[in-house]
Amino acid sequence: MILADVNFEMIVTEAQLAPLLRLLNEQAPMVLAIDTEFVRTRTYYAQLGLLQIYDGQQCYLLDPLELDMAPLWQALARHHWVLHAFGEDLEIIQRLSGQFGLSVFDTQIGAAFLGHGISLGYQRFIATELNIELDKGESRTDWLARPLRASQLEYAALDVIYLLPAYLKIKQQLEEQGRYQAALEESARLADLKKRVLNQDTAYQDIKNAWKLSPQQLAVLKTLSAWRVQQAMSRDLAINNVVHADTLWALARYQPSSMAQLQGLGLPAQELRIHGTRLLKLIKQAKQTKTADFPAPIKRIVDYPGYKKAIQELKKVVATVAEESGLPEDVLASKKMLNQYLSWCWKENRQAEELPLLLTGWRQPLFANRVDQVA
Question: What does the UniProt entry say about where the protein is found (predicted)?
Fold first, then answer.
């Protein structure tokens, strides 16, 4: 049952923010439950609408549309953070501040280490750990609209008020099972991924079916993909709202040189109207790429000889480690991790700094002596 009276402090002015800044700057490092409410529709960047903080005694709701948030981000970096399913939250915070807390723990990851699956939602997490059923009726709120209703603010507050006690409960369980440090390390690894800047030069590799293209066609796709990323970022547009990935692939495959040929590909009319001339120029430019500068062919790991046998052997290893360690298989290693390991094994020049995840961190002692005979 939800608490009838949800206590929180709404901060919309610099004067209201000042006491919180003093607390965060003067207090020894604390564990803070943090959450964000945001809007992401047709934009490249999510738009922050509300920031929630709970220190175990007081819940703060901060309005980023009214406040200078820079001093707050700096003060928050002095403390330890707890979030649930932190991917999008950290993506927003990274863009706005460029810094995270002293440590960052994802309770979704912690719950996964306890066998609750790798994608446990917040509502189910709180029900499981605290036996409290949350109302998610305000989940579709436009968090950029003002004023926000009391029910919307209460909904946002509960996202952190219950998060902290639930975290403390699973932390104890993880420590009892000797898994807390591994969960903390896994959280840190995934948080670090949010600090990586998208490489425009390699964006073409993420286009579906790029592996089907020749090196010359990949040169065109590379130019088009880099342009699309630049457009998305500079104009704050969702990347497929610039030009769809399927369109880029078709352009690289057939390389039209006139508007008539471009129209003949049956591409979306809006894309042609807005970008048609520019796309033709980009294709013409990319076709001038020297052969020596063509991207290497994209060879899928599944096409390597012996892949099917190797991946099955790796899955057996994961099953064995799961049985012996008590850790769920989906926490130990995803198929992507197994593919990463095989890709590394089959490289001619293995680099120590490029060790696959199976051979690093908390996974290393579990897998190092078991997978070396597979590939």
Answer: Cytoplasm
